[in-house]
Amino acid sequence: MTLFFVQSLLNGFTIGALYVMMALGFTLIFGILRIVNFAHGEFYMLGAFFVYMLFGIWKVVGYLPAVVISAISIGLLGMFFERIVFRPVRANELQVLITSFALSIGIQQVSVLFWGAEDLSIPPPYTGTLQWKQFVFPYDRVIVVGYTLLILIAFYYLLKRTKVGLAMEAVVQDKEAAQIQGIKVNHIYLISFGIATLLAGAAGGLVGPIFALTPYIGAMPLMRAFMAVILGGMGNITGAVVGGLVIGVSESFLTTYFGGAFAAIMTFIVIMIILVIKPSGLFGEVGS
Amino acid sequence: MFTRQFNQLNSAQKFALFFIGLLFVIGITTENASSKEVLKIGAIGSLSGSGAAWGIATKNGVQLAIDEVNDRGGLKVGGKIYELKQIIYDDTYTGQGGTTAANRLIFEDKVNFIIGPIGSPAALAAGLVANREKVIVLCNGFSPRIIGKDKPYTFRITLSTNEFAPAIVKWMAEKFPTMRKVAVICTTDEVGQAVAPLNIKYYKEGGFELVADERYERGTKDMVPIINRMLIKNPDIIELDGHAPGDVALIVKQTRQLGYKKIMIQTGGPGLEQVLEVARELAEDFLSYNIFDPQDPNVQHFVKAYDKKFGGFINPYCPLMYNGTKLLFHTIEKENTLDTDKIKAAFEKSDGYMTMMGPIKWTGEELYGIRHQILTPFYISQIKNGKIVTYTKIAP
């Protein structure tokens, strides 16, 4: 029974890792640019497909280099979209909302043209399982948890120990004051969007081999990212991490011990209860 | 007013305007000159999500049947010749999608015939809309509620659980006499509510013991928690019943990754090519109900036509939707009418119509109250060494 518990916990961390990476990017974009990016799931999808092409079809690089190249490419693509698509409409919240929906649909449909609508798969980069008595854990999931930790450490370092990270914090606190201090706010917006979409692309590349690929796989991670961010507090980095893990682990435990249908309902009920007690989220500030 | 404005244009602008007008006139007259009337044939299929393989199969099967008719000059009905045109909408494998697609086809496109959907949620929903408007629906979906006396315009043109499950369970009992514990996994929607209980019923009647009956929300990608719930009961057989191909593929992959080595079978589907694509070497030994053998000499003309137009793997539903569409066109021309009441009556008497898979037979009076269920032989296939092989042929 203990092994079963540990297995459920590790399963929860694996899927929670995906939610954390998505939620981080989502909350970063909201926290700094005040944009709710409904196209965020599509960057995750593109990250998975880039790895599919680099590692699975063209076979030009190994799996990890493919994930790195894919993540960086998606980050650059995100910066392109921030500059060309979002910046002109940033002043109007409704226009930003509609634009992000339109971008989401556009990316999806272009992807359908390229890759079709049927399921595809990335060749498994790691095979085999970690096994002890009834405890069985596929290696590819261990890798996801491991690399997510590394990414989180790097992200935290960037935010707290680099000039760019400090500039991002300054812009969040007070945009005008940051400008007066010589911080180029538009550059910070561009870099933030790039980092956020890089995280989504990395998530897609890491998790892609575990699931199947279609142009529509971005919807579920986006929904979970949204839930994690609301739970953790919009714009709060720590909240996004905790929110993602809470949702991932609770999904895993509730499904394993009570079944899928129960888990689907209970996850939402748990979130609603937390929000009733603390409407701004676990780490959100009152009024945010 | 317009004269003054026209005079203000320069020469280039006037020429452009004239040219556009000329194109418009040519377009209109050409359209009129070439017409045959166009008869729209509606189709509904999942063109996105885990059921996309089936939706594309529907689209391609209907199109091949349409091309055959158009290539020989069109459909002759009531002294007119019709050029056929497919209008297909995505049902997203949901009831809501089926309703939306049916509403658009019937009220905007004014179709009288709909091929599809495949998938119980959408087929049930689309059938409700279509039957109110006396539109004929030729669909699939394993739920027993899809056809019935209350849906006189719906015909199921592929087999459903009631037709193939008893024979498959009997085969399993003979083939694997020591494997008796079954775990069933399904979604929480119509498939899980109406289809999985049928499979469970037939397994129990066949002497099997149900050790797990698990449900999950459609759209779930991480199946490991629910698979763990099943594996802890140590089943000999994991039954995937009416899942869409994408979901089957994920469950097979993740179950095998967790070390399960016994039997995995889908008494439903089929979606073998998706399982092979996603699960790769983990798909080895996967068993499934199947409805098409591309090696059969009788189907080679279809295989060649498909290969020429679309290429790639032929999903088994494609030839079935092709057969159903051809039967529709044959019946329309034979009855020389587009009246759906007359077509419906003629359909019910079309036993013996020869398809490339043999003559059709209508059944269903006893189970559904209406003879709108097609009956044809089917196969059990298996994935062996990275290929889909036909294991055995069964007559239900």
Describe the secondary structure blueprint for this structure.
The complex is a heterodimer of chains A (288) and B (396).
Chain A: H1 2-33, H2 40-57, H3 63-86, H4 93-115, E1 129-132, E2 135-138, H5 139-161, H6 163-173, H7 175-180, H8 185-207, H9 219-232, H10 237-258, H11 260-277
Antiparallel strand pairs in A: 1-2
Helix pairs in contact in A: 1-5, 1-8, 1-9, 1-10, 2-3, 2-4, 2-8, 2-9, 3-8, 5-6, 5-8, 6-8, 9-10, 10-11
Chain B: H1 2-7, H2 11-34, E1 37-45, H3 52-71, E2 75-77, E3 80-90, H4 95-108, E4 113-115, H5 120-132, E5 136-139, E6 154-156, H6 161-175, E7 181-187, H7 190-205, E8 209-216, H8 224-231, E9 237-239, H9 245-257, E10 263-266, H10 272-279, E11 287-290, H11 300-309, H12 317-335, H13 340-348, E12 354-355, E13 358-359, E14 361-363, H14 365-368, E15 373-375, E16 378-384, E17 387-394
Parallel strand pairs in B: 1-3, 1-4, 4-5, 5-6, 7-8, 7-9, 9-10, 10-11
Antiparallel strand pairs in B: 2-3, 11-16, 12-13, 14-15, 16-17
Features:
heterodimer; A: 288 residues; two-stranded antiparallel sheet; globular; B: 396 residues; alpha/beta; 3 domains; six-stranded mixed β-sheet; 14 helices; 17 strands; 21% strand
Overall description:
The complex is a heterodimer of chains A (288) and B (396). Chain A has one domain. Chain A is 74% helix and 3% strand. Chain A has helices spanning 2-33, 40-57, 63-86, 93-115, 139-161, 163-173, 175-180, 185-207, 219-232, 237-258, 260-277; strands at residues 129-132, 135-138. In chain A, strands 1-2 form a two-stranded antiparallel sheet. In chain A, helix 2 packs antiparallel against helix 3, helix 6 (163-173) crosses helix 8 and helix 9 (219-232) packs across helix 10 (237-258). Chain A is globular, with a radius of gyration of 19 Å. The N and C termini of chain A lie far apart (42 Å). Chain B is α/β, with parallel strands linked by helices and 396 residues long. Chain B folds into three domains: 2-34; 37-159 and 296-359, 3-Layer(aba) Sandwich (Rossmann fold), CATH 3.40.50; 162-290 and 380-394, Response regulator (Rossmann fold, 3-Layer(aba) Sandwich), CATH 3.40.50. Chain B contains 14 helices and 17 strands. Chain B has helices at residues 2-7, 11-34, 52-71, 95-108, 120-132, 161-175, 190-205, 224-231, 245-257, 272-279, 300-309, 317-335, 340-348, 365-368; strands at 37-45, 75-77, 80-90, 113-115, 136-139, 154-156, 181-187, 209-216, 237-239, 263-266, 287-290, 354-355, 358-359, 361-363, 373-375, 378-384, 387-394. A seven-stranded mixed sheet of chain B has the order 8-7-9-10-11-16-17, sandwiched between helices. A six-stranded mixed sheet of chain B has the order 2-3-1-4-5-6, sandwiched between helices. A two-stranded antiparallel sheet of chain B has the order 12-13. The longest helix of chain B is centred in the first third of the chain and has 24 residues, at 11-34. The radius of gyration of chain B is 24 Å and the shape is globular. Mean pLDDT of chain B is 90; it is low at 29-34. The A-B interface holds A 4, 7-8, 11, 14-15, 112, 116-121, 123-124, 129, 131, 134, 136, 138, 140, 210-212, 214-217, 219-220, 251-253, 255-256, 259-261, 263-264 and B 47-50, 52-53, 55-56, 188, 214-217, 219-222, 224-226, 228-229, 232, 245-246, 249-250, 257-259, 274, 277-280.
